[in-house]
Amino acid sequence: MGHAESAALFVRDGARAHWHDQAGWWVRQRRDAGAKAVPDWEDLRERAEAIKAHALSNLAGYLEEFEANATRLGAVVHWARDAEEHNRIVHGLLAERGVKLVVKSKSMLTEECGLNPYLEARGIEVADTDLGERIVQLNHQPPSHIVIPAIHMKREEIGELFHRTLGTPAGLADPQALTEAARQDLRRRFLSAQAGITGVNFAVAETGGIVVVTNEGNADMGTSLPPLHVASMGIEKVIPRAKDLAVFLRLLARSAVGQPISSYTSHFHGPRKGGEMHVVIVDNGRSSLLGQGGFRRALACIRCGACLNTCPVYRRSGGYSYTWLIPGPIGSVLAPARDLAAHASLPFASSLCGSCSDVCPVRIDLHHQLLAWRREVAARGLLPAGKRTAMRLASLVLRYAWLYRLAGRAARLAMRVLPRPVLGWLSGGWSRQRELPPAPEASFRELYRRTRGQP
Amino acid sequence: MTTVGLFIPCYVDQFYPQVGLATLRVLERHGVRVEFPEAQTCCGQPMANSGCSDDARPLAERFLRVFGDYEYVVAPSGSCVSMVRNHYQPFLAGRTGFDHLRASTYELCEFLTDVLGVEKVEGRFPHRVGLHRSCHGLRELRLGAGSERNVKPFDKVAGLLSSLEGITLLEPSRADECCGFGGTFAVGEEAVSCMMGRDRLADHEGRGAEVVTGVDASCLMHLEGLARRERRPIRMLHVAQLLAGEG
Prior knowledge:
- The complex is a heterodimer of chains A (455) and B (247).
- Chain A has 455 residues and is α/β, with parallel strands linked by helices.
- Helices cover 53% and strands 10% of the residues of chain A.
- In chain A, a hairpin with a 5-residue loop joins β5 and β6 (210-214).
- Chain B folds into two domains: 3-115; 128-243, no CATH class.
- Chain B is 48% helix and 12% strand.
- Chain B contains 14 helices and eight strands.
- Chain B has helices at 10-15, 17-29, 45-49, 53-67, 78-87, 89-92, 98-104, 108-115, 135-140, 156-161, 185-188, 190-206, 217-229, 239-243; strands at 3-6, 33-35, 72-75, 105-107, 128-131, 168-170, 211-214, 235-238.
- In chain B, β7 (211-214), α13 and β8 (235-238) form a beta-alpha-beta unit.
């Protein structure tokens, strides 16, 4: 099922779709307020774009610099070509130390790699500790948003889920009480886990340190209590200098949820005393995107989710209507790079309104990339046959003014004389919910000729 | 005297001739000599936005042949102008006259404001009007600041409209959210497209608008189609019609 079909199912429940739209719009408004409180916001975006462009153009060098400095600080750096190798490395580290329970803070990369099922199949329990991610884990779902994983669930539904899984009283839907229940449940796991896994928001080449941004402090809990810290990062996360953080951290939380700064910005420089720290650097298709001309800019993404919140299509179709784990505009430009045929509908899941490009803190030209992916879809012969034929035919007609005039006149005549049901059938998706435009007797050029004579 | 090649997008030509006539009138009233080259057809955006470059290319080439020699090209559409200015590059880069064409093709309000320096339009439109800020005009031509960016507020379309006598311009609660037309998106993603359109209508109706206006007849065609199906009384008029004193 492509995006359009899944989206139609989501929209069918109008009240819910509107509720989801409002939730996303509320976050977008907070983002606007945050962005407008910073006078040099647009300069910051340009600077962030430039730093990322530079880092991506010199990626190999910065990754090696990061590796050398992280190693000097006492961390162990691993390289993983793909998801399978990443999972094998992480599992190896945990298995060698007899880990039975691992606590994990939010990481889209480990979702992308399918780490949880991989570890669980090998007898290791994984507890997601970000509240939203814990909710979707208990509900056996992937995140439906990259920053707000359970944005699709109403609090009553979370109450029901917690009643079933955590034994909270039936009917309890108070967010504070539910959060407390999750906290108590997670606390036991934090205390007994033998390892903590985190993602990485930024890896600093010049220091060898990594930065993890959370609002709940769960990354700190997960790395302070157990002796082993495994951090998984995509190759695109490296930035040159510590002072670049001053640019990205000002942009990240404001873009994500409108906060000036996230509640916890944790800097890890090597293992804590008596502990171990491993950093797994993962490619999994990223380097091939790096080689794909204009598409490489998508690698600059800092996963703030602003493009999801502003996207009028995402807000009205929900995260699960996309055929890839990362939904919304950024997911729709990343997914086709992995498997164009499997995700051929995603570049079309946009009205090309361009709002995504204007909220993006690193100025990825998202809507132009969606357009560029449409060209790839067409070039690879993946467009629906009907659409392909219609475009070819229209183009042929429009190459000749006389043919265009004739076709226009015939179409308008048909629209005036044909019975409604026939017209409805002919215009398909347009007239199920909409009237066709008026079909005037004369076109503009005919009127122009009548009033102005032959030019 | 400034000479303008009038570019009337194909669907405006066929379905909204009064928008073309209004554009002609507005331009002439501001002392511009206007020619409508009859060899024009379509800018090729539907093909280009479907990814069908091979089908769009001959139309881009044709556009350059038809309009390349004009001092200015003006159209009552932000979207089709953006096609020429921002998306012809892959088809026409390096061609003689392309740089001139790109630089001299304007959306109507933009032409009035930036080239002719018009600040006030003579005319009366004593109605409550909601302004639909069509996306390509807003974010690709920068006819306004846009709600996303932190730049000094400006709005070329609202600027012209607010100079009309008697007009009440109403701000929708979501200043510039997409109406959901999106070309083939309107059909390919029909469910989301129609929901987006109805949400825009409700927003404008909630503010008490009698008329919704905008720079793109395509967005208005979509909104009008939805409103007429549900017999909502709200009317759609193109900006050119308001500036020409119609309605």
